[in-house]
Amino acid sequence: MSTNNNIETKESNILNASATAAQTQTGGADIDSVMRKYDRESNTRVWTGVPKIVVTVVLALFSLWCIYVTLFATFLEEIRLTSFMALIVLMGFLIYPHKKGLTKPNYIPIGDMIFMLLGTASYLYFTFNANDIINQGTRFEWYQIIIGIVGIAALVEVTRRCVGMPILIVAAFFVIYALTIGLTNPSFPGRVRYLVRNLFYTKGGILSTPVNVCSKYIVVFIIFGAFLERTGISSFFIELANSIAGRFAGGPAKVAVISSALCGMVSGSSVGNTVTTGSVTIPMMKKTGYKNEFAAAVEAASSTGGQIMPPIMGAAAFLMADFIGVPYSDVISKAVLPAILYFFGIFITVHLEAKRLKLTGIPKDQLPSFFKLIKKIYLLIPIIMLIVWVSGNYMTMQKAASLAIILSIIVGFINRDAKLNPRKILDALSSGGKSAITVGAACGVAGIISGAITMTGLANELINAIVGVAGDKLIIALILTMLCCIVLGMGVPTTANYCIMAATTAPILIRMGVPIAAAHFFVFYFGIVADITPPVALAAYAGSAIAKSNPMKTAFTASRLAIAAFIVPYMFCLSPALLMIDTTPLAVAQISITAVFGIFGLAAGLEGYCFTDMNKIIRVLTVVGGLLLIYPGLLTDGVGLVLVIGSLAFQFIMSKKTIKGAEA
Q1: Which of 25, 255, 557, 625 is most exposed, with minimal Cβ within 10 Å?
Q2: Which residues lie closer than 8 Å to 336 by C-beta, 6 or more apart?
Q3: Quick one: DSSP state of residue 458?
Q4: Locate the TRAP C4-dicarboxylate transport system permease DctM subunit domain: which residues (predicted)?
């Protein structure tokens, strides 16, 4: 009996030891403070005692309300959407203070109270007068315009508190453009009236597609993710990654890549996942011998990549199926190869860095038993059934997500290590409601952006301008669109990020003749990598806070590790075969093989090591060869293959000479 207990203790030690290391290696850094600094969703008011119970119950009731409305409500869409936004504004002010660092318990300023009540009342006014407002056409009184202005202002303020300024700066630009140049009404009051009416009282503004999709689909998936986390699936993923890759060279970094990819696809937050899994993996990587910047960058790049990892993709996979009008199974099949290439690039770089530094893995006796972990495979049942229900078209996405929530509760009661109880269920519901605030607010502002663009005709002008600059050169349009996506995606959660990109930037590429699926994947990828792209690389900065590394160096290292995310989207726009679009198995096999060699060449050239250290000429040749292999075409593939294989062969020969020289 004692022997069995010792074995179980060894197998479970890895997480506890790593958690302790997280505190030691970071100099006692408080993980919560890192979250509050880099993740706006974590900057919340401090509620204690009875007020805390009240706020928790309000959030939980909101989650239950969303599930009910999604499944059973038959009332007007305007009623559903305005009541949803009223609750988002109410909870936004209840949860988020007006600036960081306000931790006074049970305190909300009188100004916040007034703003919260006025903002909530503005949307409820629409809710309870929806029929009259719809029937009154364009005839709006000034008091209704003032109500609309208050509602818009309240949404903007909530967004500033929980999402940040980048998306608001973009929205402000388009609104100012509409008020000064874009609208034809000669009087300024007339322009204000027209703008507010369209943004607040029609489904072409705040209540447009992003908020509609958010209230109908996203919230239910967010609640599902909250329940899934309570089942202990994150710990399962980390232990599983340890058992698979922990013993190999540089094992902890490989564990970080695998576990962060698995956890990230469910969490829907690059920053949140970087901090939660990074608190375990980053100290492990540092202890193994990786430099601080590299350890933080691996975690940030992997957590960001988790958002593009099928079959969940941070819930964006389900939204993409709805946006582009294809079955969910089609989205997943298209997402597989790009995701494999992304993580292959990170994995190869991590491996080469480990070989260059001569790093070892985690001792076998400190790793969890893979066969013991298999007994917990039932934790994946909710995810598996969700995928089966949706991909098989057995039910709607929202119904499938709701049933998956029930399954996760059942699984949670079965798992003894993280057993669910009524308190955890209430916590999951309130956590889901809290997470919905950020996404709902961001989607509302996305509606303002798309509404302002549409009503001024700027959408066509922007598209025409980019198409005009690009001419018949698709690559130029892709570069310009990429820059737009990175700016728009700064600090925005995954699902809201995709909604914004789908509404604003995807039409540019579609106009250029890019297949609709490729256009949506392209803008989704570049919206996501904003989390590791300087200067606003929140996931990289969060990882650097844990690793005690230079934030900017960490961001650039993360961008280098995630080089596939900057290359692969160009591949599937230039050669849609990578997304299984209008292709044959032979063409898919060809582009997959050349892409793997290309990513390997890029990773090795940027790392500057393969078998032995590379000189500058070999590095350049290897990188050029990798890029040529990535660009579709027989000539470029042939030249690229020669360069990459030739460079690697040269490196292999040099390494043998180095070994012989050392032995002599």
Answers
A1: 25
A2: 310
A3: H
A4: 151-585
CA-based angle 58:63:66, to the nearest 5? Answer: 120
The CA-atom distances, in angstroms, between 266 and each of 143, 273, 288, 332 are 44, 9, 28, 15
Q: Is it the case that residue 21 has pLDDT exceeding 50?
A: no
Say if residue 654's pLDDT is above 90. no
CA distance 115 to 146: 14
Count Cβ neighbours within 10 Å for each residue of 163-202 and write b for 16 or more, e otherwise: bbebbbebbbebbeebbeebbeeeeeeebbbbbbbbbbbb
**Number of Cβ within a 10 Å radius of residue 513:** 12
Q: What token pair was written down for 528?
A: 């996501």
The mean pLDDT value for 512-522 works out to 90
- Cα of first residue to Cα of last residue in the chain, in angstroms, is 54
Q: Is 516 helix (H, G, I), strand (E, B) or coil?
A: helix
> Could you tell me which residues are beta bridge partners of residue 609?
613
Evaluate the CA torsion angle 647, 651, 652, 656 in order and state its sign.
Answer: positive
Q: 612 forms bridges with which residues in the sheet?
A: 610
Type of residue at 71: L
Q: For the residues 178-188, what does the mean pLDDT come to?
A: 82
Q: How far apart are CA 155 and CA 60, in angstroms?
A: 21
C-alpha 236/C-alpha 246 separation (Å) is 14
- Is residue 270 within 8 Å of 257, Cβ to Cβ? no
pTM score over 0.90: no
**Higher per-residue pLDDT: 256 or 143:** 143
Residue 661 CA to residue 647 CA, distance in Å, equals 21
For 613, the 3-state DSSP assignment is: strand
DSSP state, residue 418: T
Average pLDDT over residues 400-429: 87
For residue 590, give the nearest of 623, 629, 563, 643 by alpha carbon.
Answer: 629
Can you tell me the distance from the alpha carbon of 526 to that of 478, in angstroms, rounded to the nearest whole number? 11
Model confidence over 133-182: pLDDT tens digits? 988 877 888 899 999 999 999 999 999 988 878 788 888 988 998 888 87
The 3-state DSSP class for residue 191 equals: helix
* Cβ atoms within 10 Å of 118's Cβ, excluding its own: 15
**Which residue's structure tokens are 């609208």?**
183
The H or E element that residue 181 is part of is none
Enumerate residues 6+ apart whose C-beta is below 8 A from 511: 463, 467
Rg (CA), the chain: 26
Burial class for 13, CB neighbours closer than 10 Å (0-12, 13-18, 19+)? middle
Mean pLDDT of 587-601: 85
- Residues paired with residue 610 on neighbouring β-strands, in sequence order: 612
Task: Indicate the DSSP class of residue 214.
Answer: I
